[in-house]
Amino acid sequence: MDKAELFARFAAKDPRALARALTLVEAGHPWGAELLKAHRGQGSAKVVGLTGSPGAGKSTLTDRLIEESRKRGEKVAVLAVDPSSPFTGGAILGDRIRMMRHHQDPQVFIRSLASRGALGGLAGATVAALALLEAFGFDRIYVETVGVGQSEVDIARVADTTLLVLTPAAGDAVQAFKAGVMEIADVFAVNKFDLPGGERLILELKSALELSPPRPGGWLPPIYPVVATTGQGVEALFEGLEAHHAHLVRHGLLEKHRLERARFEVESVIQEWGRRRTQEKGGQALIQAVAQGKLTPEEAALRLLAPVAE
Fold first, then answer.
1. Contact 122, 81 (CB under 8 A)
2. What is the sign, positive or negative, of the torsion defined by CA atoms of 104, 109, 115, 121?
3. What are the pLDDT digits (tens) for 79-114?
4. What are the CB-based long-range contacts (under 8 Å, 24+) for 30-38?
5. Which residues contact 164 (CB under 8 A, 6 or more apart)?
6. Are 142 and 28 in contact (CB under 8 A)?
7. Whether residues 134 and 269 fall in one domain
8. 124 pLDDT higher than 50
């Protein structure tokens, strides 16, 4: 489809146009940038970020949360940020496979994005994709990160509510505390609670939370035991997500979240520009100069980004 048709079909809420627009945004195509500029700031979706170590059951839990959202008549989108192949840059699409039972529901849209080496567990195009999904009229958007451990705190800068998924007998409480994820989670889910060690993990979380700094507006992060495979505890967890969103609205914190999301997007663009410049011929020469001690990293970075600023 040409640009005029794409814009018209997107405005008419055509899912195929949305899919095409997301592809253009992820590729950095000018049409995608124009579409974003025309529609940014529209919509008011509730954005929930799910983070946690690989194998914690984030995808299965997301599947259950989609179900709860649909019970309430919500139009739902999911951005599943998959690990990238280091060779092709493509996503594995494993998360989409786990949510296949919703693929025939016209009110559910699931999209996988390749992380492409993003350190925070998020693809560089995640925030831009969020803006398009909001403009498309989704009521709730779930963003599931790759689960890369200590660098995954970026999700808190993108989502309104950050859900940390942990499992028993995996040392998750200690690791989460060390990684700083404990401090950014708004809601905790202890998944696979039917396994031994669930109660102990909840006690460890409560102890760790006592050492965490106070949250905005005095929010106290709740902890929910769940078994995503059976749906046990998921309804209560969903109500906890709703309670946190109500807290943000009540204390006027949503606007602050949206500003931080925009800041994260700008920083991601700068990071991507820098990464591309280092791989160009001129950038490689500057890297060589740093390795030889002829330039400091700061001097090389300023030279790399100077053409962009101009």
1. yes
2. negative
3. 988 654 433 444 444 445 555 667 678 899 998 876
4. 31/3, 31/6, 32/128, 34/3, 35/6, 35/7, 35/10, 35/132, 36/128, 36/131, 36/132, 38/7
5. 51, 52, 176, 181, 182, 185, 187, 188, 189
6. no
7. no
8. yes
Q: Which residues contact 198 (CB under 8 A, 6 or more apart)?
A: 168, 190, 192, 225
Burial-class residue 17 by CB neighbours within 10 Å (0-12, 13-18, 19+): buried
70/92 Cα distance (integer angstroms): 26
- What is the rounded distance in angstroms from the CA atom of residue 3 to the CA atom of residue 10? 10
Asked if residue 258 belongs to a domain, the reply is no
188 falls within a domain = yes
Contacts of 263 (CB under 8 A, 6+ apart): 157
- Interacting residues of 96 by C-beta distance below 8 A, sequence separation 6+: 80, 110, 111, 112
DSSP states along 165-188: EE-TTTTHHHHHHHHTHHHH-SEE
Stated pTM of the model: 0.84
pLDDT above 70 as % of the chain: 82
- Does 77 share its domain with 91? yes
133 and 173 share one domain: yes
How high is the pLDDT of residue 89?
44
Quote the pLDDT of residue 246.
96
